[in-house]
Amino acid sequence: MDRTQMLKTVESLRDQLRISRLPVSICSNELKEYCTQNGTKDPLIHPPERRENPFAEKQKCTIL
What we know:
Shape: elongated
Number of helices: 2
Domain G protein gamma: 1-64
Structural class: mainly alpha
Family: Belongs to the G protein gamma family.
Radius of gyration: 24 Å
Protein name: Guanine nucleotide-binding protein subunit gamma
Keywords: Cell membrane, Lipoprotein, Membrane, Transducer
Subcellular location: Cell membrane
């Protein structure tokens, strides 16, 4: 490694040290609470009814 690459690496490591980090135990609990609170609103978990969904196919595809 030449000097410029080493300086860039050191600067990158210093930037990473400045980032505040939280323990996984705290983050996982917050994520679990968020999922339980907002799970009922998630369209991937509870898709809307077919007639109310504007993106649902209106009819089946036929191949000629």
